[in-house]
Amino acid sequence: MDERCFAMHWGECSALKVHCPGRQACAFYKPRWMLEKEQRRIDNRLSHLPMERQAQISERYYDGEMPWREHALV
User: How far apart are CA 32 and CA 38, in angstroms?
Assistant: First the structure.
């Protein structure tokens, strides 16, 4: 399984914008597979909210789009 951090791009950490201390010392370390798993869980949770609340969230954070609807296990 791929254990590279989701934030590591071209040898630099895109989450911290500083030198990466390495995965043992980094509080933000997360492999890509874990990030994807968490995102699926979040998408599923959002898709089960009442449609009115989903519309509020989509307008506020996603320019009216609902990306969680296409990934969730409804």
Answer: 10
**pTM score, two decimals?**
0.69
**d(Cα 68, Cα 54) in Å, to the nearest integer?**
10
Alpha-carbon distance values, 11 to 30, 67, 68 (Å):
15, 29, 30
Name the pLDDT band for 1 (thresholds 50, 70, 90).
very low
